[in-house]
Amino acid sequence: MPRRNQTNEKRRELLPIVARAFAERGYRRTTTAELAERCGVQENILYRLWPDKKAMFIAAIGYVYDLSVAIWSRLLKEEEDEKTAAERLLAYEAEHLGEFGHSRIVFAGLSETDDPDIQAALADMYQRYQRFVREQIAAHQARRHKTTTPDAALAAWAVVGLGTVASISRELGLLSDRQRRRLMAEIGRLLLEGSAA
Amino acid sequence: MPRRNQTNEKRRELLPIVARAFAERGYRRTTTAELAERCGVQENILYRLWPDKKAMFIAAIGYVYDLSVAIWSRLLKEEEDEKTAAERLLAYEAEHLGEFGHSRIVFAGLSETDDPDIQAALADMYQRYQRFVREQIAAHQARRHKTTTPDAALAAWAVVGLGTVASISRELGLLSDRQRRRLMAEIGRLLLEGSAA
DNA sequence: TTCATCAGTAAGCGTACGCTTACATTATGA
DNA sequence: TCATAATGTAAGCGTACGCTTACTGATGAA
């Protein structure tokens, strides 16, 4: 009998490397040759793990989402009574925003949205992302029960937008780290509470 | 003597077509052959107008910015005493957001930010964009002089982020037109006023 | 040991792309 | 008119890319 199939293990091993390559160079400029070289394998090995380059990219989208959720979930488990989960999330993102290159992969994908598979993968990611944020905001508002807070769903989209513009500003060097943190903190608070600081 | 040089006129004539192509297909996937075909000329004619494909793209970035500013400026000149300029701007964007594909060009560019020329062009565009919005917000706040409004510079970045996420949601079909308008209206108001509706 | 299957290497195929070259035609001011 | 530079057409050059093929060596249950 033959040896046992290790395709899944290999996929898990190489996916972070693949994702980082796409994050650094975008979708089109990342060549399959470069992916193979970074992974330390020949190209056809990648093609045994995924049917084509597009599938590698879609897998990378899933990976960065899973990575974010894993980090956030760990963060939310650390009980801290002073701050709500939403506040801790915002504070964390203000500090570590875009550390992996999450948004670079998203931007790369957003240039390929006429491909239905890529569009679907991105849409799915955004839905989950927003839902996660919305739940934290709703929980925060319930705990603080202010009189007039923004609709949690809308506020969640706005927080996603806030993170996006913060990523862009980091990418383009538009704001200093300090200003970016202030942006996340003050506007984040406004979106959570429904009133300025 | 030779005929007179019409390079500038030709550039102005073709630039909207070039920009639309980049908006629809992204930077990498737009081939110079396709650009030429859409423009109804041969490729080398484009290369007489711009040194290379990258220059065509950077020109397209400038074009979509100029176009937005032209539209907004016209909008702001129409005097309307009920609403401030900032409110009209938000209302307009809620309705016509991304009509030309402004954000698609930006996303395409954001996948190419390791090229210093493209990065500089995008950074310049964002700076001007944010400054424009900030001025409108500051004017709005001065007119309404509420007690606690968000810092205009931060609010302007947040509005940029709000527009970005609204564009993304439109691109990916995440929100209905109605929901998207509500997002722009309610969160926009929150960012301007510093308090929920 | 056998042998079917998996893992890895090396090379290359077909195509598409950015950009250039070579050349013909046209318009214009001296 | 006519020299001259602008404008237009057609073809192709070199390279890079996505993906495949052909092959060799390793693995491990029967």
Gist?
Chain A has 197 residues and is mainly α.
Could you characterize the architecture of this molecule?
2 copies of one chain form a homodimer. Chain A is mainly α and 197 residues long. Chain A has a single domain (7-193), classed as Tetracycline Repressor, domain 2. In chain A, 75% of the residues lie in helices and 0% in strands. Chain A has 9 helices and no strands. Chain A has helices spanning 7-25, 32-39, 43-49, 53-77, 85-96, 102-110, 116-144, 152-172, 177-193. The radius of gyration of chain A is 19 Å and the shape is elongated. The N and C termini of chain A lie far apart (69 Å). The model of chain A has no long low-confidence stretch (mean pLDDT 90). Chains A and B meet through helix 6, helix 7, helix 8 and helix 9 of A and helix 6, helix 7, helix 8 and helix 9 of B. The structure holds a DNA duplex (30 and 30 nucleotides).
| Rg of chain A | 19 Å
State the order of secondary-structure elements of chain A, H for helix, E for strand: HHHHHHHHH
Count of strand segments of chain A: 0
CATH superfamily of chain A: Tetracycline Repressor, domain 2
Number of helices of chain A: 9
Largest sheet of chain A: none
Number of domains of chain A: 1
CATH topology of chain A: Tetracycline Repressor, domain 2
Strand fraction band of chain A?
Answer: under 5%
The CATH class designation of chain A is Mainly Alpha
**Helix-and-strand structural type of chain A:** mainly alpha
CATH architecture of chain A: Orthogonal Bundle
Whole-Å distance between the termini of chain A? 69 Å
Mean pLDDT of chain A: 90
Uncertain residue segments of chain A: none
Question: Which descriptor suits the 3D outline of chain A?
Answer: elongated
Which chain pair has the greatest contact? A-B, 52 and 52 residues
Q: What percent of the residues of chain A sit in helical stretches (DSSP H or I)?
A: over 70%
Described by its quaternary structure, the protein is homodimer
